[in-house]
């Protein structure tokens, strides 16, 4: 691989890529890909899941090996650091002893021994390493609504908050070339707008931007669009419109998913004045909520409003559920049931669940582990179950990846595997916390149609989604949280036409 | 109080040393039934206490914590750990009389005073649970005759006990019932239910005895696990410095090398670890480890003898009584070694390089594991117990070295292990002095294969492979590892 960093002259392009080739296993990801980025150009890079967007970003940043030429010309005339930074869509943090062996449930346990750094310590460390003034980060923290989290430990942050932390660092550093992989993932509407404003600002100061995204709401500074197809990069005039649910045909669903779930109780979950707090910090306040069998809920609220914590109560993951009045599947919580008794009724996915999943499992093991609610498979699969797993994997188009380890697949594919895992037992309740993160529009539409289908057979759903274009149409009730309180419980009316608009209007008012 | 083991006739000593059965998952079909509806009260809320309690409660059991009055009034960390996770917390007087199962998870050193304080408060026919048998076996603590005494010992740090549970698995666990205290014969059923409650049954449970657990645990920790890893690390580092290897590189190789090599050990035993070397390096490592085994055998035997006779615990308890004078002095000395004081350099060392450039450590580990295992088995400890206390735990200890070197290892392990570790290390270094004079950088610091043509004699290689693969620790290990292959790798770097 050839990396050239030459002294800038007039008219030199900022980035020049020529004949880039990259193979993954024996498949070509890039086939003589070329790309030139001139000064003043701000690009959006799109493409379907697995097309190589992330790999290209890593190659430009120098984090991946490749064949071909990548030339980056920094500008001496501006004050910004002559650096390329990549904000990855995935970020692995470690505890203070350097171990990254966590599971998502541990977020909710209160432990006096400080397991991970605080946000403040992490930022102080980063600032020192890059010679940045702490005063400069304050406005960014405020703009992204992050100031209140300075004393939180890294393990306590939600995925959206981790994403913001990475964005905060990049916006603080202002490298001459900034690449952001999926900047909007996990961010609420307000944060997305604040982020776009901040990105416009850094562009004005001379940062060149490459955003990897299929989203339509981009900062106004964006002036060029590209798409990777067939290992090559082509310039397009604008991002292609998102697929709507209606223009993609769902295949025949597996037989076992056509059965109506067998409910153990008509009452799925009931919360009576539920309160959760860590020391002084109240996360949930006086929550009263009832979910009945067959209901389809949309759960919304800004980042940090308490959505994940609320769902963790339902999934048996929160230690403080024992001190609250909570009924799950007809039983009072803490009346002698185990967490495994609860989880057997539920298929769950969340960004944190994916994040902490054991990526050393194969696709087959990952899907099958949903039958036992474990992270990774620890049992021999009986023949009848094996057939069911195979059928579902086939339905998701993952058969050829059956024996691949999750960590060798692109994030979008990993996510599909974990989505298949949520429905493998045809559960009574599906808890889908931002299920379509990392999927492309087509995959999202496909999955949402599947959800509509299984709902029509009577499955109960609780769905969290920030992106209005990514919601299934079966949702009929909505609960909105704000600062840990129920702000609204309502029916979603007129959903065919206005679901998108009503939610959008609604979110903008938050 | 006198040493319990020494009060037994030889017949009974052998009997208890020989309790060892790897339990089949089908033996846990009753789940937590034996503890359902019973009041479980845990003494102490540190890492083991909190994490075991979280697991037991999540398994549907009734768990609360009892702490000393000062800990509650002072709102100490143990109090915060328990209350912030919504556990009921009370003083000894408040909670112990209600306990059906009282779980003692305080440090070894406090056992005598804790048990003396709680025993009069315990209700009739209750159960007292330990996670280590030192107090019963070595200190000879006598428990009221109506009380059932059991042991449940997860073989991992508390944070792992929790992490593996929430992912739907568990950590290997050792259980035992004290034969002097099982008046209703309910001890085993309760210990099994407890192991289910912490998730241990999914990763393999070994039925042992208090005696077998103590005598094998002490032996493993002071020889191969802590002692030899300390000696090997320091000698390796000093050798590299003597031979002019960059100090930062040497520090990093030693700090992380043990973790990388023992990861292979964990997955496939000595065989897998040795197979990571080239053929010529493997033969060399085999030869020098044979030599080291001969040199160190008397020392391993002395440690085992002192453990069996009670000499070791007697000396250590004298130091306890003396305010830990020796322990603290030796701990300070460990903090002052050149290895400890040299930060790991900012160099990239690939996984394979840790094997190729650190053949000496592979040899140290093979020699230490086999010697500890052989010595324990010769002393009457069953091979399964000996496996757990030697090979199985090596990666866990190696991980503590990778985190923050030897000082950290000695901080994390029990004071008992730490005391034994220093005794071993002090005796072992002079024994190996002559051997170390012959060691050059091809064995530690540089790639063994550099400048060699890689050829080996077929018959020699076959002979070496045969010796490695047919060792008893490999045969026992293959069976026991079946149950725990799913455990996630603990990785630091």
UniProtKB/TrEMBL annotation, chain B:
Molecular function as annotated in GO: isomerase activity; ketol-acid reductoisomerase activity; magnesium ion binding
Start and end residues of each KARI C-terminal knotted domain: 209-353, 354-487
Biological pathway: Amino-acid biosynthesis; L-valine biosynthesis; L-valine from pyruvate: step 2/4; Amino-acid biosynthesis; L-isoleucine biosynthesis; L-isoleucine from 2-oxobutanoate: step 2/4
Cofactor binding note: Binds 2 magnesium ions per subunit.
Entry keyword set: Amino-acid biosynthesis, Branched-chain amino acid biosynthesis, Isomerase, Magnesium, Metal-binding, NADP, Oxidoreductase
Binding-site residues, Mg(2+) 2: 217, 389, 393
InterPro entries given in the database record: 6-PGluconate_DH-like_C_sf, 6PGD_dom2, KARI, KARI_C, KARI_N, NAD(P)-bd_dom_sf
Cofactor(s) for this UniProt protein: Mg(2+)
Active site: 132
Family: Belongs to the ketol-acid reductoisomerase family.
Protein name: Ketol-acid reductoisomerase (NADP(+))
Taxonomic lineage: Bacteria, Pseudomonadati, Bacteroidota, Sphingobacteriia, Sphingobacteriales
